[in-house]
Amino acid sequence: MRARTITVAGLVAAAGIGLLFHPARSLEVSSRRTGEVLWRVPVAAGEVFTFAYIHSIELTPVEGRFAVEADGWLRLVETRFPSHGAGLPAQATGRTPDGWMVVAGSERMPEFSFFMSPINQARLQVGGSTLDLSARLRPGDVVTVAAGRYPYLLMLREAF
Questions:
Q1: SS3 43
Q2: Rounded CA separation 77/49 (Å)
Q3: Is the separation of the CB atoms in 149 and 23 below 8 Å?
Q4: Rounded distance, CA 89 to CA 160, Å?
Q5: Which of 39, 60, 99, 108 is the most exposed place for a label (fewest CB within 10 A)?
């Protein structure tokens, strides 16, 4: 009986360790200039995150909300902004309670990139965490955001 308990406990422990090293879906933020992954966070299929910045011409906030798809691609859910301006969609499909214009999206992409400028104050919000991209990247760099797969245990280690 004792040998059976030890065997079962060993199998459960081995399975748990295996799961920690199994690649999990992640959102990865990297610098195009250095190739360095700046931030990697676990995400679930269907999870929505926000990329927010200040529009460089209008100097107004813009928020892009994206979903991580089951196949690892990103889907633009919507773009939100308080007023029309150069380079922003001309037709809003709705409004938020606080008056922001909302344009529904559906475009799918393997990744998206954004040119960093001191004006933009770009940040990425995933769950309860926010990454201040302007503090991590130099002006003139390009940030790339993509979904990927990475061992869960290593993501936890990087978070601390």
A1: coil
A2: 10
A3: yes
A4: 39
A5: 99
